[in-house]
């Protein structure tokens, strides 16, 4: 690539076509996809409902200003929110977290936020300042002030939650950080401390949400009631979208002039999100849970005993295979490319798997066997 900044370390092939859970590159090689575009295309690459909704909208209008009412925005928000929530639509996960950061400060009148080491919330300045990864922040200092960090799953974090905090932001599964799942009891103690000190609890569901773990949002499996939720990635199945979801009482702090976006809530992305949420039914989520249970059984049987594997962590269709230090995860990914399987990495030498939620058991098992053949 000659005309684009070298921001990404790219693999030397171009994925030019896709169908169902398979992608084809510019050399006509076809791959089974265990990435979903980093947790985005949960309904695969040829979902007829999403395609039809976007195509129909394309024949009408695909962008208007947010100066005008939008019925489709309101309909999608109604599908996304419960009865005590409102949504703000933007274009990505980092934008959703920026909106959450701003709303927390404006509503509470306080500035301090507690985030967690190893967490990831985005790369724009506010979201990057909440991201507990010095490698991502390096060279961009000074960051947004008044952000503190604590260790994940550590009760010492509770001592940092007092009435001077505006919010606590966390992922219930740290995806980029290595696919580490939070302890349920710890999360509930964090929530209790927030409630006792009038601190908002923000849960970043950008990667974990929209069915990835078998429920609409992953926090549902931890008996949490967050004040603010952020969503993106799978919400649009590949169209640019983000959403900040907050309690209705916050509306007074987020009125006209407080925040904004040119492209957020555009009608094409809303059409795609409508198609996603229409299919995210209890029956569909039950199928995800059933398939993921079989997948985890297979992983524990075939992959976990391997000498190259230290541990397997995650939940549902969000999986981290932690490799021995003697094996480089990027070498594994390249060998899997040769065998026709797309996978991802995460921190701490982790092979990350995020297959489309529509993938059947046969293809899930096929992917596991390919991974076993390399490891």
TrEMBL record:
Cofactor or coenzyme needed: pyridoxal 5'-phosphate
UniProt binding sites for pyridoxal 5'-phosphate: 93-94, 120, 204-207, 262
Catalytic reaction(s) noted: N(2)-acetyl-L-ornithine + 2-oxoglutarate = N-acetyl-L-glutamate 5-semialdehyde + L-glutamate
A GO CC annotation given for this chain: cytoplasm
GO BP terms: L-arginine biosynthetic process
Gene3D superfamilies per record: Aspartate Aminotransferase, domain 1 (3.90.1150.10), Type I PLP-dependent aspartate aminotransferase-like (Major domain) (3.40.640.10)
Localization (cell): Cytoplasm
Enzyme Commission numbers on file: 2.6.1.11
Pathways involved: Amino-acid biosynthesis; L-arginine biosynthesis; N(2)-acetyl-L-ornithine from L-glutamate: step 4/4
Keywords: Amino-acid biosynthesis, Aminotransferase, Arginine biosynthesis, Cytoplasm, Pyridoxal phosphate, Transferase
Modified residues (N6-(pyridoxal phosphate)lysine): 233
Pfam families: Aminotran_3 (PF00202)
The keyword Cell membrane appears for this protein: no
GO molecular function list: identical protein binding; N2-acetyl-L-ornithine:2-oxoglutarate 5-aminotransferase activity; pyridoxal phosphate binding
UniProt: N(2)-acetyl-L-ornithine binding residues: 123, 261
Note on how the cofactor is bound: Binds 1 pyridoxal phosphate per subunit.
Further details from the record: May also have succinyldiaminopimelate aminotransferase activity, thus carrying out the corresponding step in lysine biosynthesis.
HAMAP family registered for this protein in UniProt: ArgD_aminotrans_3 (MF_01107)
Similarity remark: Belongs to the class-III pyridoxal-phosphate-dependent aminotransferase family. ArgD subfamily.
Description of how the protein assembles with itself and partners: Homodimer.
Identification of the protein by name: Acetylornithine aminotransferase
């Amino acid at each position: 690539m000659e005309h684009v900044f070298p921001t990404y370390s790219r693999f030397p092939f171009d994925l030019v076509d896709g169908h169902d859970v398979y992608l084809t590159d510019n050399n006509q090689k076809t791959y089974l996809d265990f990435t979903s575009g980093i947790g985005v295309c949960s309904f695969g690459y040829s979902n007829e409902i999403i395609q039809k909704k976007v195509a129909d909208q394309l024949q009408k209008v695909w962008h208007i200003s947010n100066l005008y009412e939008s019925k489709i925005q309101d309909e999608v928000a109604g599908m996304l929110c419960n009865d005590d929530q409102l949504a703000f639509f933007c274009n990505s996960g980092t934008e959703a977290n920026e909106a959450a950061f701003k709303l927390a400060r404006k509503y509470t009148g306080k500035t301090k936020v507690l985030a967690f080491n190893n967490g990831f919330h985005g790369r724009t300045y506010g979201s990057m300042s909440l991201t507990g990864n010095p490698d991502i922040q390096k060279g961009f200092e000074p960051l947004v002030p008044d952000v503190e960090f604590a260790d994940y799953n550590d009760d010492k974090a509770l001592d940092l939650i007092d009435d001077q905090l505006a919010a606590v932001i966390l992922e219930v599964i740290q995806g980029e950080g290595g696919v580490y799942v939070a302890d349920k009891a710890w999360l509930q103690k964090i929530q209790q401390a927030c409630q006792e000190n009038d601190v908002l609890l923000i849960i970043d569901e950008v990667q974990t949400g929209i069915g990835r773990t078998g429920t609409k949002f992953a926090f549902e499996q931890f008996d949490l009631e967050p004040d603010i939720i952020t969503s993106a990635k799978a919400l649009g199945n590949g169209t640019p979208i983000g959403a900040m979801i907050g309690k209705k009482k916050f509306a007074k702090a987020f009125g006209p002039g407080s925040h904004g976006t040119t492209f957020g809530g555009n009608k094409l992305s809303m059409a795609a999100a409508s198609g996603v949420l229409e299919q995210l039914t209890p029956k569909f989520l039950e199928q995800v849970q059933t398939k993921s249970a079989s997948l985890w059984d297979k992983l524990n049987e075939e992959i976990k005993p391997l000498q190259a594997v230290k541990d397997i962590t995650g939940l549902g269709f969000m999986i981290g295979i932690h490799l021995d230090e003697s094996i480089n995860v990027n070498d594994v990914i390249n060998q899997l490319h040769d065998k026709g399987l797309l996978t991802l990495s995460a921190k701490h030498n982790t092979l990350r798997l995020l297959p489309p939620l529509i993938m059947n058991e046969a293809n899930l098992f096929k992917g596991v066997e390919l991974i076993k053949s390399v490891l």
